[in-house]
Here is the input.
Amino acid sequence: MLKERSDEMSRLGSQVVNNDTSTASLGLLRRVGLRLLEVAHRARPARRMRVVESLACGGKAQLLLVEIDGKSFLAAGGTDAVHTLLALPGESS
Here is the structure.
């Protein structure tokens, strides 16, 4: 009976150690992952250009509303080229 109790206590003790190790490992992995995300976010340069909207005009042609450094431009694009049609007045929101 005493031997069985001792074996049971040893088994429970090893489970506690394994659980503590697993929890510590998960905590470490979480901290490392969060740190990598912070570094990646800081390293990304601010974007100066974005396509606000695009409209398909048939075939492979499209009309694009593009914002560059807060200024809006209307552009037309096809398979071989993109042309600026118009610089729109005013600030974009």
Observations:
- Residues 49-91 form one domain.
- Residues 19 and 68 are 53 Å apart (CA to CA).
- The helical segments are 2-43.
